[in-house]
Write a structure and sequence with these properties.
Helix content: 40-55%
CATH topology of the largest domain: Rossmann fold
Number of helices: 13
Radius of gyration: 18 Å
Shape: globular
CATH class of the largest domain: Alpha Beta
Distance between the termini: 37 Å
Strand content: 5-15%
Structural class: alpha/beta
């Protein structure tokens, strides 16, 4: 299967290892991975702040760059939601792009979703192993995509990995894109609560399905002196398959 990797802005700038891991895992599973160099932002920041005309420009560019591929995979839940849910609505009145937006949405997948629902991967059968403990923060946009339980279901297939439940897992970490800028006090308290819940699990790793959430939680951990390893699902899967060396805990 020809797959295009949509890396997303935050992943490229702050968690590039997640992009490397995504590529290695997809190739290991038999996909031919393409990286369109013309890709840019999907328009989510503009959409979230009400600048819908600017968001539509980037949504159209996203379609032009990616619609030639059989599937588009991204390690970001929020960007997947932008392409799958909001872009078709944004462009529904555009005679040139409305149908193309729907077509792109239908073949765009969050990384875990693609492994679980398209490739139907069995990590245990692939001898995936990771002798560690982990807890999972499912980003809010996974709820929008109907994928809240998918990360835990997939990672439970990894031999040796003990998944520990995260208290109040459904609560937002406080990032919310522009929300953390507009309401810093509320956002700060929300991520403070999230960090306390993560610490209470005493897990080696926090697995997070969105680079924005990971960046927010990591910043709060550093601010409060908490030493917590935070990584994406592609990274822990790549490590479990021996495709990436396991990085030491902070």
């Amino acid at each position: 299967m020809n797959v295009a990797l949509f890396i997303t802005c935050l992943t490229e700038q702050f968690t590039p290892r997640a992009g490397v891991a995504s590529t290695l895992v997809l190739e290991h599973l038999g996909c031919r991975v393409h990286f369109p160099e013309a890709q840019t932002c999907c328009g989510q920041p503009m959409f979230n702040t009400g600048h819908h005309e600017d968001a539509a420009i980037l949504a159209r560019r996203m379609i032009d760059v990616f619609d030639q591929f059989e599937a588009i995979v991204t390690p970001s839940g929020s960007c997947a939601a932008m392409v799958k849910i909001h872009a078709p609505e944004l462009l529904k009145g555009d005679q040139t792009y409305a149908a193309r937006a729907k077509a792109l949405a239908a073949k765009t997948y969050e990384f875990v979703e693609f492994l679980s629902r398209v490739l139907r991967v069995d990590l245990a059968a692939l001898n995936a192993r990771h002798e560690s403990t982990a807890t999972i923060h499912p980003a809010c946009h996974l709820r929008e995509l109907g994928l809240m339980d998918e990360p835990a279901k997939l990672l439970a297939q990894i031999n040796g990995l003990e998944l520990r439940p995260l208290p109040s897992r459904d609560e937002c970490c406080g990032f919310g894109g522009a929300f953390s800028v507009k309401h810093p006090a509320i956002s700060g308290k929300m991520v403070e609560n999230k960090v306390a819940n993560v610490v209470s699990t005493r897990s080696d790793s926090l697995v997070c399905s969105d680079a924005g959430c990971a960046m927010n939680i990591d910043g709060a951990c550093r601010k409060s002196g908490v030493r917590q390893r935070i990584l994406s699902a592609p990274e822990i899967i790549a490590e479990s398959l021996g495709l990436l060396p396991r990085e030491p805990s902070p």
